[in-house]
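re: ur question from yesterday

yeah so i grabbed the chain u mentioned. its 162 aa long if i counted rite. heres the sequnce exactly as i have it in my notes:
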Amino acid sequence: MTSKLLTRRTLLTAAGAVVVSGGPGFLVPAQAKGLAPTPSMRGGANNYLPGAPIVDRIGGGGFWMSGTVRRAEDGAPLGGQRIQIWAHTTEGYERDPHSHGATLTDENGVFRLEMPQIVPAFGQPHGHLAYDSGDFETVFLRPVMKSAQDTSLEAHFVLKPA
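ran it thru and got these structure tokens back, copy pasting raw so excuse formatting
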């Protein structure tokens, strides 16, 4: 009986479905304690344009940039956070204003923005993302794709209050 219980707990933990009792009749999701903030990546701010507009899509689309935004320490999702995205794509260079756009996270701290296919710049296919709204410390990310043929890229932010 013990081995079945341990297997179930292992499965639930791996799936992220662990709950903690908040007292009689209350269940609350378990949250990470002491989650470290994401450091800004070297080169992440390259060609950054402050104030890029919030858009539904950058250019003709076909490539998806997505990720999450959470608060440092407790890992709580942060809704309504502005994330700027830009890259060297089939439709423009990183420095071109039309290659920049921003989106907001949903109530679960998730963002997703369609843009043109990212192409290699200086030998690496990569995107640029920034959190720069002011409630939390500014973070620049520069994730590199595994392959120039990938049609999506993820980046995750853990933010520290400003």
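noticed a couple things. The first helix runs from residue 2 to 14. also Residues 1-28 have pLDDT under 50 and may be disordered.
anyway ttyl
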